[in-house]
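FORM 7B: Structural annotation worksheet

SECTION A. Query
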Amino acid sequence: MNYASKAYAKTAKEIAAPRELEANLLLQAAAKLQAVHDSWADKPNELRDALLYNRRLWTVFVDSAIRDDKRLPAGLRENLKTLGAFVMCETFSLMTKPKPRYLQSLIKINRRIAAGLLGRH
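SECTION B. Predicted structure
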């Protein structure tokens, strides 16, 4: 089992509501990305780890949406897949041409999805 899946499984035992769990994982990923962004001038070594964590988390989300076609409406599943593809493209761009401004879109996406999951708009 990969790191993101292990983190997801461990946290699932501690938190009852799946939406809350997903929101917390997205917020953790956003915090890791924000820490890298905020220390960019110091050439953070954490960029790779933060991107890997976020990519794995989104891989789990998209995989779950694809497999569990009864849990989410078709339109929402399609939007999640499209957003997941965008996250993967942004991640690849950051890995090949690291620029701090590219982190902002990933941070905003994670925070906004988390807010929606928690009912905060």
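SECTION C. Observations
The radius of gyration is 14 Å. The mean pLDDT is 85.

SECTION D. Sign-off
Analyst initials: ____
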